[in-house]
Amino acid sequence: MAVRPEDLAPEARDLLERSVAWMDHYWDAARGLLWGMGEVADWDGSTHEDYHIVRESTWYALGLLVRGRTGDAGRAVQALEAVLAWQFDEPDKVYHGTFYRAPEEPHPPEPAVEWKHYDPNWREFIITAISVILSEFEKMLPRSLVERIDIAIRRAVEGTLARGLTARYTNIALMQAQMLVYAGDRMGERSWIEAGEEMGREVHRLFELHGAFEEYNSPTYYGTDIYALGLWQAYCSSPLLRQWGAEIEEALWRDIAQFYHAGLKNVAGPYDRSYGMDMRRYVALLGEYIWLVTGREDAPFPGLNAPLGHAGDFCFGPMVAIRAPRVPADAAVHFRSLQGERCVEHLLADGPPRKATAWLAERVMTGAEATSLRDIGQGQFHPATIHWHVPHAAPEQDAGSVRLMVVRPVDAVASPHRLAVTSLGPVSFLIACPGVSRGHGAPEASVTPDHWQLPGLEVRVEASTPGVVEYPGEDQILVRYGLHGEHTGREDGEAVQIVLDLSIRA
């Protein structure tokens, strides 16, 4: 097949070429791997972290093979050889078949702790990327490299089958299903194909219950979901996965579209898992997919002439560009312009109920999640959010945000001009807005526990407990409610209740 840049749509070709050119700056020819970018990377490659990255180097290899310039294929082969060298081959260990995150990290101790000493998900990320490389470019690779790849695939499958992954861990389960079917088909292992189809069946069943994934509204993990669903349709021999992949992707895009605000260039909360509040200030995989729908200028993506937040995910660009997302026409219009003010709600689970709600208007949007006061247990969980337009600000800084910092179980509900929160513990809201830092804030910025006057937004607060205002960093304000001295919870056992009433200011 050997896809080339000219085979891609203009938006996909643009993403591919920009992301690969950006990664070129981090290539270490001596090690055959990319240097780590850290949380914020220097865009021109003049500085880098003192470690290398294995998973992202696989994505770079695909991008090189697609770009196809002089020397790209040789560099891709070198990268793949280096990646394979950092796979664990220890069948009696829990990390068997996965990969070092960086060659500089120590070998896992005994007992090895998942996430701390190794990342099991590197199996699925790396092997699914390699499956695309083989599908498109196997004839261009040395036979000795292909033989090593087949050994690596078998090790990864052995490790992932021993792991016992749940289908509720959606983004990894989707990739695992593809990996198992692809490997089983390639190596004549029918039991692997059946295991992959069974994982796919369970993911599809869970999605069909409420038209939602467990990792709901995640700007990063939705990108991985769309990537894996695309693999099901484009690079999978299983008719079942191809059918389910098409069904789920269509429904997922329609749901994303309902929560997306084209003016603010963000998905409204709530976020079950998120690395940030503004996709124009950090790299989110969903932003890369929207790039393919709208083009770079209208996509929720940070500028490339400045440091990038969560920079490593820009390495995922080739994986996004290789296969165009199938966005229904009635959903695609939402990514180009706001389709009117609306309230959105989505039941995520019942028994006990869990529901997402959002309100989107011309210059503001809110999002919330009611959990039946269950402990979601995610540090990336943002169950109450506000985004609004900041007037008279530079285009890249014309949006402010508020997010609820979770400490204890919380219920939140969004409705027009209102956000209501009930928590079993203290409540903290982090306000992020250009020019609101103490001492040099905008003249119209003034925040007290019961009244937030911000550029473009006014919030009146009714709280069942006293609040305090803090200034944790530049352009940030933290407002906390429900604290009692040095304690972090309510001594009387009562819930903390907060109602935010919003109005837009010119």
Q: Topology of this protein?
A:
Layout: H1 10-24, E1 27-28, E2 33-35, E3 40-41, E4 52-53, H2 55-67, H3 72-85, H4 122-137, H5 143-163, H6 170-187, H7 190-210, H8 221-234, H9 239-259, E5 260-261, E6 266-267, H10 285-294, E7 308-309, H11 317-321, H12 329-332, E8 342-349, E9 354-360, E10 364-370, E11 384-389, E12 399-405, E13 410-415, E14 418-423, E15 427-432, E16 446-448, E17 451-454, E18 457-463, E19 467-473, E20 476-481, E21 496-504
Antiparallel strand pairs: 1-2, 2-4, 3-7, 5-6, 8-9, 9-10, 10-11, 11-12, 12-15, 13-14, 14-21, 15-20, 16-17, 17-18, 18-21, 19-20
Helix pairs in contact: 1-2, 1-10, 2-3, 2-4, 3-5, 4-5, 4-6, 5-6, 6-7, 6-8, 7-9, 8-9, 8-10
Structure description:
- This protein has helices spanning 10-24, 55-67, 72-85, 122-137, 143-163, 170-187, 190-210, 221-234, 239-259, 285-294, 317-321, 329-332; strands at 27-28, 33-35, 40-41, 52-53, 260-261, 266-267, 308-309, 342-349, 354-360, 364-370, 384-389, 399-405, 410-415, 418-423, 427-432, 446-448, 451-454, 457-463, 467-473, 476-481, 496-504.
- It is of the alpha+beta class.
- It has 2 domains: 5-334, Glycosyltransferase; 340-504.
- The longest helix has 21 residues, at 143-163.
- The chain starts with 9 loop residues before the first helix and ends with a strand.
